[in-house]
Structure formats: structure tokens, C-alpha cells
Amino acid sequence: MPGPAGRKPPADKYDERRRALAESALLTLGELGYAKASLREIANNSEFSHGVVHYYFEDKHELIVYCVREQKSVCVRRYDGVVADSTTPDELAAGFADKLVETLTNDAAMHRLWYDVRTQSMFEDRLREVAAEIDGWLEDMIWRIVSRYAELAGAEPAMPPSVLYAILDGLFQQALIGVTVGREGVLDELRALVNALMPTMITAPVAAPA
Amino acid sequence: MPGPAGRKPPADKYDERRRALAESALLTLGELGYAKASLREIANNSEFSHGVVHYYFEDKHELIVYCVREQKSVCVRRYDGVVADSTTPDELAAGFADKLVETLTNDAAMHRLWYDVRTQSMFEDRLREVAAEIDGWLEDMIWRIVSRYAELAGAEPAMPPSVLYAILDGLFQQALIGVTVGREGVLDELRALVNALMPTMITAPVAAPA
DNA sequence: CTTCCGTCTTGACGACTGTCAAGAAATCTC
DNA sequence: GAGATTTCTTGACAGTCGTCAAGACGGAAG
After folding, report:
1. Residues in domain HTH tetR-type (chains A, B) (predicted)?
2. Are residues B25 and B100 located together in one domain of the fold?
């Protein structure tokens, strides 16, 4: 009975293994979705056997929650660089848009899983906590971007964080669907759109800030 | 073999029954979601037995697609009245916002099902057609509202239909989640938000149209 | 080497699923 | 009324699921 409780050997090895399992689970989870991804299928697309899951996780639910939380916790830090390094509003907007497009192509599976989990949270109580938590992370992420953008422009965000997040999330979700079904031009449209929309999200900048 | 093909008696009776079955299926579908709603559970929450589904529908997939398409085809006509009757921009915006709030409380289950189906369409090919179709309906619906709003204001929509739809859809989806988890004040916030946001969706109105 | 313990595999269990066939019930036709 | 046809119920089928127990493997400790 080594599982979750009393552990003698390197306790880090345990967490490391959990992460490895969760990461390889992401492959199947992001391809089949929350409902259709069985533990056997997840195990088949990995180096593990289907039984090992219950050695590292209580049940399927815990694996999935761990997986999406782990992924998203790094996801929400993706724009920290551009926020910190940009010196003009336009540079920030362009960097933001570029990274949006980049993650849309590179991490499409993860984003699909996230939207799946959030939607399922409306039907399954046990998912609500993690969904609400991550939604909060993402809202904060957007707020960091827009408020810094406003600061660089000598202005203020024109809308509260929740509204900014909802709007950008709606645009991103449509783009994700577009990428998933293979629609052409989605990426360039999203990039242009974000660049065009950012100025509308702050109050009119003061002409001479100094 | 009376099913889908050759029918002698009132062919309308057949369609009528399909609609009745689909409508009672909505109850369970909107409560449990696409994946977790089994045919037996759907039948239990209705006046039908679990086997009758295959008399009126090819399979589970066809039932669900029929159900969501039927529901949404009336859903997208919800704002036709306010669009036709409003004589000022503000009246249109207020009527739109009111009806948004109204459907959010009355038809929450249907909206949950729709978002579920659209999300699942990213994982399941067979859902993509109906999801894309309905997304188109909704985009047209939003376009009718905003373009009429702009017309009443003597202006033009400031963004293309797809962008307007994505933005409003993002806001609505967040509000739906809020309603589902029982967050307070969501409805009033959405109403105020829509009223405040509508002016930003059109170009600056011409002062004296005549 | 033997012993022990953390790690993992294998195989099985019961529950649940969509589907369908066989026949009962209801309705219509004459 | 009888007979035919549409409509529906019931029960079973094969398959899949999450879960878990029994034991195999591996390396470290003695």
C-alpha cells in the first residue's frame, strides 16, 4: 500500500511519474475528449499499462483533473515574457497575437481538452472546482496583458477583467474550432483581429503622457 | 419495416412523434450532456420505452442531431420580433438584452446541450456538420440584430459577422456557466453589459441622418 | 544469496452501453 | 366482427468501461 500516503523512497519520483503519466494521457485525452478517452486507450498510447493509473491516481477523474490543471498552470504563463519585455503597446499586441497563433497550432489538443472539461463541468459537479479555478487563472492572464497594454498606452482598460476574458475567449474558441476542422486562413485572421481589437479594449490614450 | 422509408399512414404522424421524442430527450440530454445521457435514461425521463428510439431514429447520434437542430432552428428566430419592431437603437439593444437574459433562465438546458455538442464536434467527425450549420445560423442571427441596430443608429457594423458572433457568444457562454453554477447577479450583469457594448459594435453614428 | 518493498502487469469482475430481434399491443381496413 | 399493419415493449446480445486483486518483476538491504 504505497500509493498516495506513506512513502519511503524518493517522494519526488512519485510526483515525477504522475506528471509523466498525465503528460502522455494528454495525447489521447486531447484527441478523443474527456468522455471517449478510456483508460485503456490512454495506456495504449503510452508506455504504461492500463492498471498503473490506479497506482498513481485515485481514479480516472483525478488523472484528468491533474492533467488539465498541470497543463494549464504553465499555459497561463505563456505571455509573461511579452508582457514584461514589450516597450510599446503595438509591440505587446503583436507579441500577444503571435503567441496566440503559435499555441493554437502547437497546443491545439490541450486547448480542446480544456474547452471539453469546462463544458463538461456544466454537467458534472466534480469538474466545477477545477474549471472555475482555471477560468480564474485565464482571466487573470488576460488582465495582466490588457492592463499592461493600457499602461504602455497611457490609458486604462475599458472593461472589467471578466468581460475582456469572455470576449477574447470567444474569439479564441472559434479560432480553435476553425483550426480543428482545417479551415484556411484562421491563423492570420486571428492575428490581424487581435491587433485590431486591442486598441478598443482601453480608454482613449492620453496624447502626451509626460 | 415501417421505419424511415415507405410509410402508408399519415406521414405527418411520424414526424410529429419524432419531434415529441426529441423534445422529451432534451430534458435528459440537457441535464446529463451528450456523453453521459444513455438511451435508457432518456427513455426513463419520458413516456417512451428505451427501444422505441430505433423505430424513429437510425441510432443515438441521429436522435441527438435531430434534437439539437430542431431546438436551435426555433432558437435562432427568438430575436426576430425585437429586430422588426424596434424603432430606436436603444430599444433594440434593450429588447435584445432582455431576451438574452430570458432564454438564459428558461432554456439553460438547451444552451448547455448546444455548447456540449459544439465542443464534442471537435472530437467527433459526425457532429461537425450540424455544429457548423448551427454556428452559421447563430452568426446570421447576431448579424441581423447588429446590422439592424446600426441601421437604426445611422451607422454601420464595426466588425464582420464572425467577430461579432464570437464576442457575443463568449459573453453568453460565460453567463451560462455562471447561471449553471448558481452565481449571483449574472443575469443583471449580462443585461447591463449588452446594453453597454452594443454601441461599440458600430461605427460612430452620423449626427443628423436626414 | 535471501528478503523485502516499491513498482507494475495481467486478468478478471460487475455494471453499463447501443443495438436489435421477437412478439405483444394498438390501430386501421374491410 | 376478422385480418393486416403500424406501433411499441421486453429481453437479450456483444462490447466497453472503471476498478481492483493477485501476483510478477526489479532493485536495494541484510
Report:
1. 15-75
2. no
Task: Say if residue B89 is in the same domain as residue B180.
Answer: yes
Q: Do residues A130 and A180 share a domain?
A: yes
A107 and A150 inside one domain: yes
Residues B21 and B101 in one domain: no
- Strand, helix or coil at A88? coil
Buried b (16+ CB within 10 A) or exposed e, B70-87: ebbeebbeebeebbeebe
pLDDT value at residue B208? 56
Looking at residue A137, its pLDDT comes to 98
* Percentages of chain A per state (helix, strand, coil), in multiples of 5: 75, 0, 25
Pairs of CB atoms within 8 A across A/B: 96
Q: Is the CB of B128 under 7 A from strand C?
A: no
pLDDT of residue A12: 76
Whether the CB of A125 is below 8 Å from some CB of chain B: the reply is no
User: Nearest 5 degrees, angle CA A39-CA A131-CA A36?
Assistant: 25
Mean pLDDT of A128-141: 98
- Which nucleotide has its C1' atom closest to residue B50's CA? D9
Residues of B in contact with A104 (CB under 8 A): none
To the nearest whole angstrom, how far is the Cα of B121 from the nearest Cα of chain A? 9
pLDDT (0 to 100) of residue A208: 56
* B120 and B189 part of one domain: yes
Q: What is the CATH number of the domain that holds B197?
A: 1.10.357
* Average pLDDT of span A27-56: 94
Residue B10 pLDDT? 64
pLDDT along chain B (210 residues), means of 10: 50 86 94 95 94 94 96 97 97 98 96 97 96 98 98 96 98 98 96 96 72
Burial of residue A36 (CB within 10 Å: 0-12, 13-18, 19+) is middle
Same domain, A118 and A15: no
The answer, yes or no, to whether residue A8 has pLDDT greater than 70, is no
Q: Which residue is nearest to nucleotide C11 (CA to C1')?
A: A51
Q: Looking at the domain assignment, is residue A143 inside a domain? A: yes
Q: Which residues of B touch A176 (CB under 8 A)?
A: 122
Domain that holds residue B87: 76-201
Q: What residues in A contact B167, CB-CB < 8 Å?
A: 167, 170-171
Name the nt closest to A6 by C-alpha to C1': C6
